[in-house]
Known about the structure:
With about 110 residues, the chain is mostly helical. Helix content is about 55%, strand content about 10%.
Amino acid sequence: MTGANKGLGFELTRQLAKHGLTTVLTARDESRGKAAVEALKSEGLDVTFHPLDVHSDESARVLAQWLKQTYGGFDILVRTHSTNPLNCHRHLQSLSLILQVSVERQSSQVDPCK
């Protein structure tokens, strides 16, 4: 969940975790992200924090690698922040690095012969 330290992202993270999904909350500001995770953990929810600046290819690369190593990839990406249309191309490049991990995971789980 991107940009999830407050507002809609925070509430979506809460609802997904309440329904039993393993949920990773991301935010640019590490202290705010960790505080949000602690608030959700105090409700008994299983939520993990990882920093992410969606406008940074390096930040996206680090998250993608961590998701792959920690969980083998991911199934759902929810983007809750707004994007400046002037930076849209760069933003999409960063997200494509993360999405590639999901595609690789999905491909490894699908047996086309069955």
